[in-house]
Write a structure and sequence with these properties.
Blueprint: H1 2-10, H2 13-33, H3 44-63, H4 67-72, H5 74-90, E1 107-109, E2 112-114, H6 116-138, H7 144-166, H8 171-187, H9 192-215, H10 217-224, H11 230-240, H12 250-261, H13 284-317, H14 321-345, H15 363-390
Helix pairs in contact: 2-3, 2-13, 3-15, 5-6, 6-7, 6-8, 6-14, 6-15, 7-8, 8-14, 9-10, 12-13, 13-14, 13-15, 14-15
Subcellular location: Membrane
Protein name: FtsW/RodA/SpoVE family cell cycle protein
EC number: 2.4.1.129
Length: 391
């Protein structure tokens, strides 16, 4: 009983309070989304409540571990997660490995669907953080060569699984892996000139594409976009010109309409009238903006900023590099998810299958994000324990 009491006391109450706000918002918004009548008799709000209960259990299990234990599990967890992705790729389409909307991303056990790539992001963060810590301990004198060696090690464990996930296809998840990896590399202490070298190529590519879009749009639309896969073409066209390509941009048009129709104060819970396919999943923020208006939508954005800020504080106060890098990887994943999802709702970003953390309906996404917060709580708990032992 004393151990349980100490564990409860060690948990970051501020972080848990933020999660509580997001949990309630998720359940209410999913319930409201169902009122448009496109979901039949399925009670997604109730199922999300069950998902949250499972997610809390996973969060507490991860949080109960010390980060030293977590680091020791880096390779076993990575191998198991990578193997599940490979097995999913190899197995033929069946009830156990269904293909949904052209994507093969899930293992299905009855009514339960598990997406291995969601859990792999946790394994990748832990392993890359561990690699960086061990590398820095081995090469105390940092040089350009040793830092480049670290980047090479990270690339070897990050690129192969990313290619498998890209083939599912799930480009959005690959971007999450890249974001987490980039944040950890940046915080690992590598030399600035190497950081500049790593960023120059993507910066040049993005700058060139932006220039072509404004100066030579015909080249972009007629020469470059057709080189992409059909589903990627559809999303890019629907993003760049949603009102010209009405079929491809239908979800973007509807989400913008939903957000705009909410006005300042919103229509109220259950009174949203704008139809958006799968509104309770990736487009849940459209429901929030339509029902709660600009005021509540801005409040939710503020809550997400508090979440990121709290993780930054935990990472900053951590007394070891591994804990700091775990927080950096978590920030990379959550920040990109939030920016991409809300951005696509208001037409600033292309539509991607990236859920809004802790708000969108779904099991695997919620479970993996709760485990991610469990890692942060573990970092905080371990830090507080060390502080107590020192005092």
């Amino acid at each position: 009983m004393k151990a349980i009491a100490e564990f409860q006391k060690s948990l970051d109450k501020k972080l848990l309070f933020i999660l509580g706000i997001l949990c309630v918002t998720s359940l209410v918004a999913i319930y409201s989304s169902q009122q448009t009548g496109q979901y039949g008799t399925t009670n997604f709000a109730l199922q999300q409540g069950i998902n949250y209960i499972i997610g809390i259990v996973l969060l507490l299990l991860v949080a109960s571990m010390d980060i030293d234990q977590i680091q020791k599990l880096a390779w076993p967890f990575y191998i198991a997660a990578f193997a599940s992705i490979v097995i999913l790729r190899i197995l033929p389409v069946s009830k156990f490995t269904p293909e949904i909307l052209g994507a093969k991303r899930w293992f299905r056990f009855g009514s339960l669907a598990i997406q291995p790539s969601e859990f792999f992001k946790i394994a990748l963060v832990i392993l890359i953080a561990s690699l960086a810590v061990n590398h820095n301990a081995k090469y105390i004198v940092r040089t350009f060569k040793t830092d480049l060696l670290l980047v090479g090690k990270i690339a070897l464990v990050a690129i192969p699984p990313s290619l498998f996930v890209y083939q599912q296809p799930d480009t959005g998840m690959v971007f999450l892996y890249a974001s987490a990896t980039a944040c950890i590399i940046f915080m690992s202490g590598i030399q600035k000139k190497l950081i500049a070298l790593l960023t120059v190529v993507p910066t040049v590519i993005m700058t060139t594409l932006i220039y072509i879009y404004f100066e030579y749009p015909s080249i972009l639309f007629k020469k470059l976009i057709p080189l992409l896969k059909p589903h990627q073409q559809s999303r890019i066209l629907g993003w760049l010109a949603p009102f010209d390509y009405t079929d491809q941009g239908y979800q973007t048009q509807q989400s913008i309409l939903a957000v705009g129709s909410g006005g300042m104060e919103g229509k109220g819970i259950g009174h949203g009238s704008v139809y958006i396919p799968e509104k309770h999943t990736d487009f849940i923020f459209a429901t929030i903006a339509e029902d709660g208006g600009f005021i509540f939508a801005a409040f939710i954005v503020f809550i997400f900023l508090l979440l990121i800020y709290r993780i930054i504080i935990v990472g900053y106060e951590a007394d070891n590099l591994f804990g700091t890098l775990l927080c950096a990887g978590a920030i990379g994943i959550l920040a990109l998810q939030i920016f991409q999802n809300i951005g696509m709702i208001v037409g600033l970003m292309p539509v991607k299958g990236i859920s809004l953390p802790f708000l969108s309906y779904g099991g695997s996404s919620l479970f993996s994000n709760m485990m991610l917060i469990g890692l942060i709580l573990s970092v905080r708990k371990t830090y507080k324990k060390y502080m107590f032992s020192v005092s």
